[in-house]
Amino acid sequence: MRQGHAKSRHSCFRQQSRKGINEEGREDLIKKINEHATNVDGK
């Protein structure tokens, strides 16, 4: 029963992360890319 609960929670988390990639993930990616670009330019 414990394993089944963990599995269902994992699948729910995957669905949430998928939505996050579509909406918030893009902004996070852009921020990371911009930060990386500034770091490279600085060096």
Automatic annotation (TrEMBL):
Record's protein name: Uncharacterized protein
Domain of life of the source: Bacteria
Organism (species): Pararhodospirillum photometricum DSM 122
Positions with biased composition (Basic residues): 1-12
Span list, region Disordered: 1-27
